[in-house]
Amino acid sequence: EPEVTQTPSHQVTQMGQEVILRCVPISNHLYFYWYRQILGQKVEFLVSFYNNEISEKSEIFDDQFSVERPDGSNFTLKIRSTKLEDSAMYFCASNSGSRVNEQFFGPGTRLTVL
Amino acid sequence: DAKTTQPNSMESNEEEPVHLPCNHSTISGTDYIHWYRQLPSQGPEYVIHGLTSNVNNRMASLAIAEDRKSSTLILHRATLRDAAVYYCILRVNYGGSQGNLIFGKGTKLSVKP
């Protein structure tokens, strides 16, 4: 069964450093998303991406964040200058564009900012 | 998006049915009812969705009240692997719109052997 994959599974970084979280969505999917979940809290939407551009973003997704689909398979989330409060699980998801709107989530990347 | 209300936690015994309720009294006519679950240390996983009629799939059943102000996710025989946080989410589904999901706190289901 096709699945969304994410790398790395755990990323440790120093405050102020740039990080890039990588995702490989399911191959024929058209819509891509990033969510995050701070430990013990709700899953929060960050951004959605369709047709090579951002279609929606939340208040969390400020100028420190960017997304890119550099080739036909990868979807990346970049945080330019990490803060302590960026420590969280980051989930990538993808959607085929069918009427069901079923989103398939990856296993997540745990980001720890020291 | 319309708001949903779910109990914080529920317990079940293994092999028994589980009924997870969700109230959504402000649901609009175009809102679909989606259920996702999140197993420990994993990403959320789609379970089922419906609009007006009851729905069944291999994972669960969804019973929707006639006035659509509430719904119930039914796991027919709970297994230990069903222990997870279950989220009831309302989304508008229409052609070309595949927007984000708004997660609440969900219901944490514990399954006892």
Describe the structure.
The complex is a heterodimer of chains A (114) and B (113). Chain A has 114 residues and is mainly beta. In chain A, 0% of the residues lie in helices and 50% in strands. In chain A, strands 2, 4, 5, 6, 9, 10 and 11 form a 7-stranded mixed sheet that branches. The termini of chain A are far apart. Chain B is 0% helix and 46% strand. Chain B has no helices and 9 strands. Chain B has strands spanning 9-13, 18-23, 31-38, 45-50, 55-56, 61-64, 70-75, 84-92, 107-112. The N and C termini of chain B lie far apart (37 Å). Chain B is globular. Chain B is mainly beta. The chains are: A mainly beta (114), B mainly beta (113). At the A-B interface, strand 4, strand 5, strand 9 and strand 10 of A face strand 3 and strand 4 of B.
Key terms:
heterodimer; A: 114 residues; 7-stranded mixed beta sheet; 11 strands; 0% helix; B: 113 residues; mainly beta; globular
In short:
The complex is a heterodimer of chains A (114) and B (113). Chain A is an all-beta fold and 114 residues long.
Structural class of chain B: mainly beta
Based on CA atoms alone, the radius of gyration of chain A comes out at 13 Å
Percent of sequence in beta strands of chain B: over 45%
SS element count, helices of chain B: 0
- First-residue to last-residue Cα separation of chain A: 37 Å
Percentage of residues in helical conformation of chain A: under 10%
Oligomer kind: heterodimer
Uncertain runs of chain B: none
N- and C-termini, Cα separation of chain B? 37 Å
Query: What structural class do the secondary elements of chain A suggest?
Result: mainly beta
Low-confidence stretches of chain A: none
Series of secondary-structure elements of chain B, N-terminal to C-terminal: EEEEEEEEE
| Biggest sheet: strand arrangement of chain B | 1-9-8-3-4
Overall mean confidence score, pLDDT of chain B? 91
β-sheet strand percentage of chain A: over 45%
* Sheet with most strands of chain A: 7 strands, mixed
- Give the number of DSSP strands of chain B: 9
